[in-house]
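Writing this down once: the sequence line spells out the residues, with the fold written below as integer tokens. I am pasting one below:
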Amino acid sequence: MLVIKLLYNIIMGISGNLEARQIMVQQQIRAVSVLDKKILAAIGDIPRELFFDNQLSSVVYADAFLPLPLNEKSLPPSLVGRMLQALGCQLNDSVLVIGFGSGYLTACLSKLCAKVVAIDLHHIMKERASLALEKLAITNVTLLHADASDIYETIPNTIFDGAVICGAINKKSIKHFLPLIRLGGTIVLIEGDPEQPIQSLKKLTVTEAGINVIETFLCNTRVDFLKMRKAN
């Protein structure tokens, strides 16, 4: 009888999470004009609960920042969707993720491109995200524990088709990452000033002269700034 009850709870939990995922896609992701079918399918395919502590299970599909270790926070699902759509990667692309945090955006991205290399300043983030990716049998992601300011020592002689920077960054620091992206490649980031309340989601294209700003959207939430031990 106990075994039957446990199986029932597991099945109901899976069913409930799947329904919550579908509601999230329809009411949160599509609501911010993320309409690319590949992105909606990728987000709908990844169970968010694997990337967060069990005590957050009741809010894991809320469109909110969720707490992570070391006072870090994950990005809300709607912002994840907007960033993935802005990136617009192709199935044969290689993409760099800087500040992967929970690993949820990285997992969604793995469904949209050939290869993802993701770095984070905190080793505990790598440990947690690695477990989630292993449960999902995702094999095209490499997670690295590294400081973004040392990225050229961490992944030398590597060029990517695109990049997503998951923490806010000021305009001056963007230049630090440009040599990592091929000409014509795309960088998606949150740009802001620590002294100012307004931040913008930006899509940039790398050019010989530097960058072109392709799209700019105001953020309706304030994202924590990317942590780097060394100033640039």
